[in-house]
Amino acid sequence: MATKQFVNLLxxxxxxxxxxxxxxxxxxxxxxxxxxxxxxxxxxxLSFYLSSLNAESTFRQIKLxxxxxxxxxxxxxxxxxxxxxxxxxxxxxxFCIGERSMAMARGTEGLGLRVTPKPKLFSSGITDLMDxxxxxxxxxxxxxxxxxxxSGTLHPxxxxxxxxxxxxxxxxAAFEDFTTDPDKRPLGDYPSYExxxxxxxxxxxxxxxxxxxxxxxxxxxxxxxxxxQTWSMMVEPDGESDYKRTxxxxxxSIFEAAFVWQQPMQAxxxxxxxxxxxxxxCSCFDFMDKNGxxxxxxxxxxxxxxxxxKPPVHGIMLNWLMDNGRLADVPLEEKKWLLERLVQWxxxxxxxxxxxxxxxxxxxxxxxxxxxxxTYYTPVGFPLASPDLNTFLALQLEAxxxxxxxxxxxxxxxxxxxxxxxxxxxxxxxxxxxxxxxIAFNPATGAKSETLNISLYxxxxxxxxLPQEIIDKSIETIFSPEGFDTPYGLASEGLTSDFxxxxxxxxxxxxxxxxxxxxxxxxxxRPDLAKKVxxxxxxxxxxxxxxxxxNALTGKEDRSLTAFGExxxxxxxxxxSCFFFLADQYGD
Length: 588
Hints:
With 588 residues, this protein is α+β, with helices and mostly antiparallel strands. The protein contains 15 helices and 28 strands. Strands 1, 2, 3, 4, 5, 10, 14 and 15 form an eight-stranded antiparallel β-sheet that branches. The model has no long low-confidence stretch (mean pLDDT 95).
């Protein structure tokens, strides 16, 4: 049976911007006729650290199976930019997320639909509302789904409900997501299925036009898929979640949260839409504790984890936004709001991550590095004084000074922040460059980490602030046979290193490493190298999908990182946004 796929549901669950509904194939499903099972899923999580721990049992919630003459029949799953389609030998059932809290189903060829929810503890999973419109309430993890027949009838069975077509062979139903007791709307108030499809088409089309209306050359063919992946992972404040502004989540199910060190990167990538970029950038600072620490991951309900922290890349990205005129239209009061919080976030590291008081900050755990299985701390442990963290902070000190000037702070105030940036840059060279390569060290033991990890080369983001000799030697190492260069981008560990492995940051091609090193080569006035890395990386995403981990030896996606009951990673908005940005900047 021929299929045309916009996205494969094994690669990317289907959702819509601002929606907590999604459609996915079965965790054990295949992209083969008769091997597929469609699920309606919930993207609500209390927090990444709380509810993702058993994603397989919390993500897929309602099984959807086609019926013909009362029997379940085999199918294949298809997608368009607007719809998910169950295709059988007897016809199709089409689904659309017509409103952010409502999915619609429709079949016109005599097919029915079996709906089987996962029951909660002490629940049957199905509640008969006993109203004149024959509606039922279905368990849906943290919320409930109101199932309303619009054409055809509902027939409950043992743990399931069948939606059967009317005498014209038409079956249509609405699945509405409620966090409270449902407010039942009259049947005449539901939009038509066609109107739902048009709603998605118009909203997604407007997003594409504002963010990336075209891509050059070979990359145009997957532009819409990359934009759709990012668009479908965006969350909005809705009065029920803890989100206060637009944020971009990472990956459905396994990483069902918006990570705060990804938001400033997303702001750069989305920055053709200046207002959207500003909102996304500022969203991080809505979640700050009294010491100035930003939350690591923001789920449907936010939860501070005292062990979680991510690197302060906000200054790097803010500098880019200022350099490229993306803040020109931001009101002064909003810039002042950000400045106050950026100061607190920057000072946090010098107050709480400089244990020995030498002016260099340290990581105190692997989660804080952002490279959760990197090699550069494995030999020496923590605390870890590292060149990447201090580089990020040196550039953030500069960003504070520059934003302060835009906010009308005195020249003395701005000069003091810039002086701190210069002093830290000097310390980075003195403490982390050994004459031939970059190192990290444990200030408690004095042990030096001399693994060849890409994170150690983040000081190249300082560009011409570094001596040219250091820039040249660093680039020579990166592109040497023992370095990081592959036909697919830069590996996260040296290719001949004794510590090379796959995983996340022990040797794979990973999104943040590629993007940050592209920025680093630009800062070093080597746009040729920036282009080489960017184009190679974009090509593997074009060919193998928007996964944020790719095998450095083959270029293919690497789904070996698994967690929480899922068999592998889905497409990532971290990767898809990076793709369309780099393809636009460097594609021919």
